[in-house]
Amino acid sequence: MKDSIRHLIQQALTRLTTDGVLPEGLTPAIQVENTKDKSHGDFASNIAMMLAKPAGMKPRELAEKLIAALPADPAISKVAIAGPGFLNFFQNSDMLAQRLEAALADARLGVRKGSAREKVVIDLSSPNLAKEMHVGHLRSTIIGDAVGRVLEFLGDEVIRQNHVGDWGTQFGMLLAYLEENPAAAESELSDLEQFYRAAKTRFDDSPAFADRARELVVKLQAEDPECLRLWTRFNEISLSHCQKVYERLNVKLTPADVKGESAYNAELPGIVNALRDKDLLTEDQGAQCVFLDEFQNAEGNPLPVIVQKAGGGYLYATTDLAAMRYRSASLKADRALYFVDQRQALHFQMAFEVARRAGFVHDGMRLEHMGFGTMNGADGRPFKTRDGGTVKLIDLLDEAEQRAYDLVKGKNPELDDAELRQIARAVGIGAVKYADLSKHRTSDYSFNFEQMLSFEGNTAPYLLYAYTRVASVFRKLGKGIDEVDGQIDLVAEQEQALAAKLAQFGEVLNNVGEKGVPHLLCAYLYDLAGLFSSFYEHCPILSAEEEATRQSRLRLAALTGRTLKQGLQLLGLEPLERM
Ligand code: ARG
Question: Where is the motif named 'HIGH' region mapped on this chain (predicted)?
Answer without folding.
Answer: 127-137
